[in-house]
Amino acid sequence: MGKIKKSDKKRTRKISLFNHKGGVSKTTTTFHLGWMLAKKGYKVLLVDADPQCNLTGLILGYSASEEFENFYLKNPDVNLKAALKSAYESLPKLIEAGEPVEVAKIKNLYLIPGHINFSEYEITMGIAQELSSSIQALKNIPGAFSFYLEKEIEKFQFDFVLIDMNPSLGALNQNILMTSDYFIVPTSPDYFSKMAIDSLNTVFPRWKKWSERAQSMYELDNAAYPFPKGYPKFLGTIIQKYRPRNGEATEGFQSWINRINESVVSEFVPAMYKIDMLLDRKKYQEVRKDFTDSYCLVQIPDFNTLIATSQEHQTPVFALKDNMFGHVGAILQQDQKKRREFHRIFSKLAEEVITLTDA
Question: What CATH topology corresponds to 13-356?
Answer without folding.
Answer: Rossmann fold (3.40.50)
